[in-house]
Structure formats: C-alpha cells, structure tokens
Amino acid sequence: MDLSLPGTVRAIREKYGLQPSKGLGQNFITDRSVLERIVEGAGIGGEDMVIEIGPGIGVLTVELAEKAAFVTAVEIDTRLLPVLEETLAEYDNIHVLNGDILKTDLGKIIEESRQEGRFTGKVHIVGNLPYYITTPIIMKLLEDQVPTDSITVMMQKEVADRISSGPGSRIYGAISVAVQYYCSVTKITDVPKEAFVPRPKVESTVLRLEPLKEKQIEVRDRKMFLRCVKAGFAQRRKTLLNSLASAAGIDKDTVRKTLEAAGIDPGRRAETLTVEEFGKIADGFTDGQDNGNR
C-alpha cells in the first residue's frame, strides 16, 4: 500500500470517516519526491533513531522506518491511532505514542530506547509541524536541549524564511536569533500546496536544524539572553534603549549603560543586531544583577 498516493489517502479517509482537523493543522503529503527529500535531508542512518512529530496516517513514518533502526511517532489525535495501527502494521521498528509533543519528555524516551537496544546510532527529529504551533515546538526542543543530532521539519514558508534570515532583514526577528543561537540552519526544499491533501492555503519549506556542539557565543544566562531577544523585538520600531526598557522592565539608565559598555549604540534597533551582540547585552545585564546581589 503506497500511502503517498492521493487515492490511498482518500480511501483511508473514507474507511475511517476521517476529516482532517484544521485545528491540528492536518495536511497529508501525497508527493513522493517531497518525502524522499525530507528523508535524505534528515541524514538518517541504519543504526539511528527517529522521533517523528505528528505522523498523521503514516505517510512519512513508513519512509523513515525504511531508513532508521527505530522510529517513535508522537501523535496527539486519538482518531488516528486505529489508522496508524493498520498502515504501519508490517513494521516492527515503529512505536506510536499518543501524546502532545509539547508535554512529552523526549530525552527520557531517547534514553530508554537506547538502553533497550532499539538503536545504537544518532537521534533525529523529523516532522510536518502544525503551522499554528511551529515556533513553540521548535523552541521547546531547543530550550529543553533534547539530545538530538538534527531536527528536520516542515513548516510554513514564511516562518522558515524568518528563521533563516539575518540582521538587517525586515523579517529578521526573535525566532531568527533564538534558533541561530542554538543551531545551524539549512534549507532542504520548498514544498508547493499541491503536495498535500487537503491542500493548505500557504507554501511550505523544510529546514534542517543542527544543534551546535560549540555555540558561536556562550552566554552566562540563557533565560536572560532570550528575555533580551524577545524584549528587543517586542516593539521593533523602537530603539533598543526604549524597547529593552519597556518590554524587559529595566530602567533606561541601566539599559543605556549596559549597551554602551557592550559597545552598542542605544539608538539602534533590534533588527540590526547579530546573535553575538544580543549575547553581549544579556551578559551585561547578568553581570549587573550579580554585582547588585553582592
């Protein structure tokens, strides 16, 4: 059974009375070339484990299982469990876990799977992310420091462009800085609307995020770093002096002194700053707090 064929998807939907949930962002891939590009881009080896976010009816899951030693597919929609039981029946290296990826302890799952001997190689996270919660999912994976070698995910093209953008771009924002602090970002492929059933209203892009073994900067306090990044872009038309003072709740005099000590003009805007410059600002505030507590 070729799950990537539109006719197969249609037959499964009719058999189970399945209406894709708009609320869960369910769009099933029906383009084999896209599936192949995702799997190849993820760099999966025969001894590796894959965690798939949102398997749907298993279209991508079976392709991953063909390459990997073991696949854990995390699916939140209970309606899809009997479907997956049928479509994945011939694979003994797939475990379907009914759960919310935002509440799932992936580190524990990975450690248990390794101890049980299900895989001996690397760990890869792969998924066609629900567009409405793409950013929360990515940030949870990164902030939780899930022990993975790569994160290959499909998302709305607009979000992928923001993640990939650099300083000076009008779409450069908090998610750009946050992701680039943790990872290197590689574009795998663009995906047209026609590659899905039902067809979404937007174009998609697949990105590969590789957690940096040595970050380009090492900040003293990650929470302070992310706080500064979010505050800086909260009112992006404002200067750093005003946006940091307003959104981060730090008095202007302290903000000005911290920026000047970091060699950064208080009149600049967040969209002009590099990841390294945000790190300098965060470290300045952290040092100021430490000195104030002495």
Write a structural description.
The strands form 2 sheets. Strands 4-3-2-5-6-9-7 form a 7-stranded mixed beta sheet, sandwiched between helices. A two-stranded antiparallel sheet has the order 1-8. The mean pLDDT is about 90. The relative contact order is 0.11. α9 packs across α12, α10 (about 240-245) packs across α11 (about 250-260) and α11 packs across α12. About 40% of the residues lie in helices and about 15% in strands. β5, α6 and β6 (about 150-155) form a beta-alpha-beta unit. The protein has helices spanning about 5-15, 30-40, 60-65, 80-85, 105-115, 135-145, 155-165, 175-180, 220-235, 240-245, 250-260, 275-290; strands at about 30, 50-55, 70-75, 95-100, 125-130, 150-155, 185-190, 195, 205-210. The protein is elongated and about 65 Å long. The protein has about 290 residues and is an alpha/beta fold.
Oligomer class: single chain
Question: In angstroms, what separates the terminal alpha carbons?
Answer: 68 Å
- The overall average pLDDT, rounded, is 92
Order of helices and strands: HEHEHEHEHEHEHHEEEHHHH
Number of strands: 9
Rg result? 21 Å
Number of helices: 12
Beta-strand level of the residues, as a percent range? 15-25%
Largest sheet, if any? 7 strands, mixed
Q: Please identify the structural class as seen in this structure.
A: alpha/beta
Q: Give the proportion of residues in helices.
A: 40-55%
Shape: elongated
